[in-house]
Amino acid sequence: MACLLKLACISRSNFYYHLTKLKNPDKYADIKEEIKSIYHENKGRYGYRRITVELHNRGFIINHKTVRKLMKALGIQCFVRAKKYRSYKGTIGRICDNLLNRDFKATSPNQKWVTDVTEFKVNGMKLYLSPIIDLFNGEIISYDLSRHPVFKQVTNMLSKAFDKIPDNTNLILHSDQGWQYQMKQYQYLLEQKGIRQSMSRKGNCLDNACAENFFGILKSELYYIKEKEYKNIEELENDIIEYIEYYNNRRIKSKLKGMSPVQYRKHSMLVA
């Protein structure tokens, strides 16, 4: 044995160290498999922090530093990178007061909603997304996709949202100063439903930061990754529909105690 070690230029201690490692099974083997499972289930959108939260949800006790090391050893990493985007802006005109005033916290569902419109491009064609987001849990209450920035897109979105709440809730619906939200018909629809309209100050995107943030997540986790792969608008449209279902029901958030928006809403109703 000594001769063989000498020929291989390996010390006795080093030999026995590696021999012991070979005999002992990898104590992180199960967690590594779970990490890979979580990573692929979420199409590479989860980094080590969100994977750590999901591991905790699944009963594993492990800290984020270890998860980061294991992900590095597995050769996987979150490929989402934030990119600046520009949401669609209409002509500035008559506006309403900024009732929200950057108070983005809500203590229960359907107290404060925000909305906006964003634009996508595929091979010279455009697609517009108009969602309503509940500030209580970040859930997409309703949305509409359109090939053109038309007012009917907004009324379709409102109709879907109004079906989910009773009249006269007195909730706030906040938007920027886009042309859609300045129309008398839009303001009339809100008034009839008992909803208070709120608008951002001119040219101040931070007043509607939660809507901007959702668009940033959607585009960085979906659109920018596959932008060059799309052959037509229909493919993108189907992916957005699928992503919003995923975002509402399966994409966990640390600020929601490791739950998805829908899970958090249901949980809040149980403990109320």
How would you sum up this structure, described in words?
The protein is an alpha/beta fold and 272 residues long. The protein has eleven helices and six strands. The protein has helices at residues 2-7, 12-23, 29-41, 48-57, 64-74, 151-162, 179-182, 184-193, 209-226, 233-249, 261-271; strands at residues 112-115, 118-122, 125-134, 140-146, 172-175, 196-199. Strands 1, 2, 3, 4, 5 and 6 form a six-stranded mixed beta sheet that branches. A hairpin with a 2-residue loop joins strand 2 (118-122) and strand 3.
Descriptive terms for the model:
272 residues, 11 helices, alpha/beta, six-stranded mixed beta sheet
Gist of the model:
46% of the residues lie in helices and 12% in strands. The chain is an alpha/beta fold.
